[in-house]
Amino acid sequence: MATPKIRSANSASTSTLAPDLSKNITLKDGQMYEVSLVKSENLSSKAQDAIFRLFDDNMLALQRNSSFPYTEQSKREELFDPDARYVLIRRPSPSFSASKNDSNAPRITTSNGKAKGKGKGKDKEVQIDLTQEELMGFCGFRFDTEETLSSRDAEVVYCYEVQISLKSRGMGLGKTLLDVLKSIGKRRQLDKIMLTCLKNNESALAFYAKQGYTPDEIDPTRMNEEKSTDSDDMEEGSDTSDEEVDYRILSKSLK
């Protein structure tokens, strides 16, 4: 059940969650890219198509015979749940060259540069439009509670997807996405970031380990390993192992 802190996070505007976004960053190749935060409900149909196609290109073969098979309909329902939010990395639009310090510059713009609000005032959430060619990577997440081994549920940022396009890999974009997620979680004073990763996705597991993610206390494989260790002195022939799963549950503390 959602706690007051989770309900507050779910109702917060993107500018409240990440006041330093949108912004341009310069990567190793010297080019600049735009990082922004958007609610799923503010993604245009074209932007939703770009996100789904990038996910499908990266994950179809890995998930086809896994515990998480999907159809296009089922995956779109998950990706674009009303509570989902996205950190997007894209090639910057020309309109983003306006300075944030310019009080006459639009606060928020669409990808075609049409202003949707000026100066100070209530935050305006606008529709985001982008193509698959513009989209370099994304992180989809939600705010939620997760069970723990104690009586208190954890308040978490649950990372559903980190996807980088093939031609945009090796630039540090995955780390950039997770750093934004960490900043958002810390600002909301949540307990940790959590995610699920297939065991056959070895490159992703290695990446998450490098970023400081470890098997969560409720990760089934970790629990089985600890149970096996604890039962070394049990009677011979007793079976304490649970059915093996094909995924890991990882987490990183925000405390």
UniProtKB/TrEMBL annotation:
GO terms for molecular function: histone H2A acetyltransferase activity; histone H4 acetyltransferase activity; protein N-terminal-serine acetyltransferase activity. Residues 95-123, 214-255 are annotated as: Disordered. InterPro entries: Acyl_CoA_acyltransferase, GNAT_dom, NAA40. Keywords: Acyltransferase, Cytoplasm, Nucleus, Transferase. Its main location: cytoplasm. Residues 219-230 have a biased composition (Basic and acidic residues). It is found in: Cytoplasm; Nucleus. SUPFAM superfamilies: Acyl-CoA N-acyltransferases (Nat). One of its GO terms (cellular component) is nucleus. The keyword Kinase does not apply. Coiled coil: none annotated. Belongs to the acetyltransferase family. NAA40 subfamily. This is N-alpha-acetyltransferase 40. It comes from Kwoniella dendrophila CBS 6074.
